[in-house]
Structures are given as C-alpha cells and as structure tokens.
Please model this.
Amino acid sequence: MSSKDPDASSAALEPWGTEGPVQAEVFTNLMGPPLLVHSTSWRRGKGGVLLTFLVVIGEDQGAHLASMRISRSDLARNSATEAATKISTNQVVEHALRHMAWLAQDDAAVKAALSPAWLATLAGYVPEPFRHLG
Model:
C-alpha cells in the first residue's frame, strides 16, 4: 500500500470478508496482479488481529507510489511470554524479509516467483533462528 494512505489495506479488505485469497485480490484491484503474496506475521492490535503480508510486485507496478529505503534492523523483541511493546516499520520489514529469505531457500513456488534481483537481495538475510549462530 502507499505510505500516503496507511489505512488503505484495512478499508480495502472490508468488502471481501475473510474467505478466499483476499490479499491478492485487493492488490490486483489496486495495482494489478502481484508476483507473490505471503503472510509474514500476526499480532494483536487495536480492535483485533493485525496481519502482515509481504507483497512482491513487478517493477512497473509501484513507480507511482511513495517509497523509502529500508535498512537492516534488529527484530522487535520483549520476553519469552510478552510481545514487543513497540514495533517500527523497519522491524516489520526486517522480519518479513528474513521470512522470505527462508522461503526462497525452502519453497520452490516462492523461489520461482522471485526475480534474480530479489534472490540476490535476500541472500544477505540469514533466516531466523539461525542468524545468531554463524
């Protein structure tokens, strides 16, 4: 979604309810078909559950949207029994990219959907939980 309209995804989901490939349908209606849609996390939010998706789009699909550089970030953490109290956008993206790096190695459909440029970018991410072991 455009960073200019952070509520666009929530508003767009309401007409479709919860059945079917909602996220792909939303993106198709807004920008054309995505190359890949994958759920990367969930957490409790105000009024319900907040789902996070990484959506890979074609190079020609996002040129008109605002963008920002994403840098590496530590994951948001708290204790073994409590969620992080503050989660930044960079931390959400870091988590999603680590997750995608693992899937690019482990899931043939994900690997096939990603371009060589995506695969090269993800090669720098060591999927959790192995990042701190090497």
Q: What stands out?
A: The helical segments are 8-13, 22-31, 89-106, 108-113, 116-122. The first helix runs from residue 8 to 13. DSSP finds five helices and two strands in the chain.
